[in-house]
Automatic annotation (TrEMBL):
This is Tetraspanin. It comes from Ptilonorhynchus violaceus. The gene is Tspan1. Structural component of specialized membrane microdomains known as tetraspanin-enriched microdomains (TERMs), which act as platforms for receptor clustering and signaling. Participates thereby in diverse biological functions such as cell signal transduction, adhesion, migration and protein trafficking. Regulates neuronal differentiation in response to NGF by facilitating NGF-mediated activation of NTRK1/TRKA receptor tyrosine kinase and subsequent downstream signaling pathways. Plays a role in the inhibition of TNFalpha-induced apoptosis. It is a multi-pass membrane protein. Belongs to the tetraspanin (TM4SF) family. InterPro entries: Tetraspanin/Peripherin, Tetraspanin_animals, Tetraspanin_CS, Tetraspanin_EC2_sf.
Amino acid sequence: LSPGAKMGCFTFIKVMMILFNLAIFLSGGTLLGVGIWVKVDGESFLDIFGTLSSSIVQVVNVSYLLIVIGAILLVIGFLGCYGAQKESKCLLMMFFSVVLIIFIVEVAAAVLALVFTGLAETLLNGLVTPLLKENYGVDRSFTHIWNVTMTEVHCCGLNNYTDFNNSYWYETHGSYPTQCCANMVETCNSTLAAALRVDGCFDQILEEIRTNAGVAGGVAAGIAALEVAAMAVAMYLYCRLDEK
């Protein structure tokens, strides 16, 4: 290619890099804002987006997840957009490094999820079950999120009704949440809960994930492809700056 064509190609890729990362930056800011909104007023968020209440993200505190993802996207978008605009080798290399680390973590997480599903279940139990015992019936947003989830997904606790044994809710009310008895009675005791055997939310969500595995895999592959493309473009700009 002639020097003019090379410069035109460089300029085009630079502009695309800026626009792409500007979109990432704005998306990150949006997610961060929504995460803060959910943290501050989770009940009104669920009232507005009630149709999404059966989503897997309702099992954990979605606000922290949105805040973390939003903050990461803000950093990535800033490094890529500002680094390309200022033609800064330092910022471009930082952008490349951050995306590479995220890509490696995603691949490692996918491998671990496939190979160590039992371990993931154990870790989830160790994290979520104590939260249920301590916060269900105490934290209004946490309780509301779990109530909506258990009602929409038709499940009880993470594993089953025993997750509420020795919990604040059971000690206060002397019964399990009505969802543990399929909402058939107002007072759900251990005899009815054991007889009805309502599945835990973890098993229900796993089944939902298996049902939509193709879609999830396609989305994951698309994200991975975008990350690889972003790293390639960042490295191209980085190397072309040496020639300039």
